[in-house]
Amino acid sequence: MKQLWTFFFLSFLCSGLFRRTHSEKPKVVKIGSIFSFDSVIGKVAKIAIDEAVKDVNSNPDILSGTKFSVSMQNSNCSGFMGMVEALRFMEKDIVGIIGPQCSVVAHMISHMANELRVPLLSFAVTDPVMSPLQFPYFIRTTQSDLYQMDAIASIVDFYGWKEVIAVFVDDDFGRNGVAALNDKLASRRLRITYKAGLHPDTAVNKNEIMNMLIKIMLLQPRIVVIHVYSELGFAVFKEAKYLGMMGNGYVWIATDWLSTNLDSSSPLPAERLETIQGVLVLRPHTPDSDFKREFFKRWRKMSGASLALNTYGLYAYDSVMLLARGLDKFFKDGGNISFSNHSMLNTLGKSGNLNLEAMTVFDGGEALLKDILGTRMVGLTGQLQFTPDRSRTRPAYDIINVAGTGVRQIGYWSNHSGLSTVLPELLYTKEKPNMSTSPKLRHVIWPGETFTKPRGWVFSNNGKELKIGVPLRVSYKEFVSQIRGTENMFKGFCIDVFTAAVNLLPYAVPVKFIPYGNGKENPSYTHMVEMITTGNFDGVVGDVAIVTNRTKIVDFTQPYAASGLVVVAPFKKLNSGAWAFLRPFNRLMWAVTGCCFLFVGIVVWILEHRTNDEFRGPPKRQCVTILWFSFSTMFFAHSMSKENLLCHWLLFGF
Ligand SMILES: *[C@@H]1O[C@H](CO)[C@@H](O)[C@H](O)[C@H]1NC(C)=O
Ligand SMILES: *[C@@H]1O[C@H](CO)[C@@H](O)[C@H](O)[C@H]1NC(C)=O
Ligand SMILES: *[C@@H]1O[C@H](CO)[C@@H](O)[C@H](O)[C@H]1NC(C)=O
Ligand SMILES: *[C@@H]1O[C@H](CO)[C@@H](O)[C@H](O)[C@H]1NC(C)=O
Ligand SMILES: *[C@@H]1O[C@H](CO)[C@@H](O)[C@H](O)[C@H]1NC(C)=O
Ligand SMILES: *[C@@H]1O[C@H](CO)[C@@H](O)[C@H](O)[C@H]1NC(C)=O
């Protein structure tokens, strides 16, 4: 037994030694980072990533004995530059990339990451279509726009608006975001009336924006969702302000591009702030924590107070931390950092001048990816862990309202419980929060500095009118009649009902009445109804009776002038003569009844006539007694006087 234990102990030691020799940690691990240096997100991310690398290298708990070295490349949000810079990374033997920042670049280099097995930890790509099936090495450490659009749809639904206009930048980021918005609206029976795509180049000319805005002005909805890049967004708001579209009646909902700018360059220049008064803005929600507060304090020293921290800075910091923890686990599990040549690139590269064979495949990529996805940590952005479909758990957004020189927090949206004024992290701890009691959002100061909720639509100037046929009646003018001296104006009960119904609709319906008939006699209603099917009218208003024939070709409203349901049945007069009392039974029944009485009388006579004086006398009298007895059994009235009984009987009969 002792020997066995010693054997186990030795083998355990050996295996431990073995492993250590095999997984010798490198002194330096190279990671890359791709983002747009000139953008607001990029500027903040650069400082945050540097700081995170510094923290990893100085923290003995993470990756002890190994240092991170990060190299950064500017993709400038161009697919081409992103691809070139990514290629340059791949020949440097890096184990992971922080970034990219733009969806366009993400779509490009994710293919490369798949092939060369380098995990991408993107802190700012919110494009919802980056599927983990197609791009397994793409890890999103921020929240997908799917949730942001869900939040916007919730807001639109909450205020009871039905239709919105989407202004977006026409590239992967904007297009896929708006597609998600469309889906989320559709699931609430709302819709996008008009999608206005803008050129993705930052140097969009003013005329293009102006034309788009004028087109929007002529439409019915007054709710505009704007999902673009920063500079483009401010350019749109500037022109909108010029056109008076930042005033009363309009609602603008901006996605997180605006909150990033509001956070980072606070205060915003006065002329910019002036153009975005009353706008609703979404910002990814990050729970408050001591760690976060401390980081904000540190930030002032780091950035030299020139640039304030925004949410994406926090995501960038957490991405580096996540990669470090993933690597830590990777090394602990005995992983090696080794690279091998890509078989296909090896042959391809030699045939041309491009140095393609220099690109190497990270052998431990798959294991590292698993370690990263399995990591659970609490970072600056709260609990960082992934659902099976690779999105971050507990997505939530802040909803803010630009008012005066600052912003007001009017509520939150969380995937768990929708809109509320309660912090999402408090709601996530509850099983099923009772949302019926708390207010969903605080008051908003809408564009035009008003507290009243905009209606959300106007009568459009160029909308198609509904053609409504109206009979030119000669009689019963109370129902419909033309107002004297006008062509298309009508009055009457039917018109009043119709107008009231149209006014109840939550959107505008422009209507044009078209008279039908010659005005000398009542027109044929059947023919008028038929004109709906031929397309001459979109509908008909009038005292049109609902008959079977007509219901087959058109839909009728509920009857609004009805006499109620009536059943019509044939009627036959019954005669009530002296013999009416016989009617309950038929003849046979009466005969049987009579026979029964007679039978009873005879039986009683047989039993009684020897002893009872009543049953004595001449045969004629005895017969009468038998008959009388059977007759009177009906009334148990043998004791009554015969006259009295007869009276009874006669009264009963008649
Ligand atoms: C980034 O792109 C813009 C226009 O797309 C260009 O003006 C600028 O020079 C580019 N910057 C870099 C560093 O490539
Ligand atoms: C680590 O690298 C060594 C060669 O350097 C190799 O023999 C070993 O199998 C590698 N271990 C893992 C887990 O890949
Ligand atoms: C990979 O390719 C480089 C350059 O083409 C070559 O020097 C090296 O030996 C190759 N390595 C392997 C493992 O094939
Ligand atoms: C968001 O909510 C839906 C429905 O409740 C759920 O199916 C989904 O998993 C949630 N997403 C996340 C990331 O928690
Ligand atoms: C929520 O609270 C309201 C008022 O307190 C109560 O009437 C309602 O039953 C509660 N709903 C649930 C699901 O607990
Ligand atoms: C309505 O019914 C009549 C006969 O009762 C028929 O002649 C006529 O074609 C029908 N009209 C329509 C529109 O079905």
In short:
The chain crosses the membrane at residues 588-607. The protein is of the alpha/beta class and 654 residues long.
Structure in words:
The chain is built from 21 helices and 22 strands. With 654 residues, it is of the alpha/beta class. The protein has four domains: 212 residues, Response regulator (Rossmann fold, 3-Layer(aba) Sandwich), CATH 3.40.50.2300; 178 residues, Rossmann fold (3-Layer(aba) Sandwich), CATH 3.40.50.2300; 86 residues, Periplasmic binding protein-like II (D-Maltodextrin-Binding Protein, domain 2, 3-Layer(aba) Sandwich); 74 residues, no CATH class. The strands form six sheets. Strands 7-6-8-9-10-15-16-17 form an eight-stranded mixed sheet, sandwiched between helices. Strands 2-1-3-4-5 form a five-stranded parallel sheet. A hairpin with a 2-residue loop joins strand 15 and strand 16. Helix 3 packs parallel to helix 4, helix 7 crosses helix 8 and helix 19 crosses helix 20. The longest helix has 22 residues. It is elongated, with a radius of gyration of 44 Å. It binds 2-acetamido-2-deoxy-beta-D-glucopyranose (6 copies). The site of one 2-acetamido-2-deoxy-beta-D-glucopyranose has 3 residues, from loops.
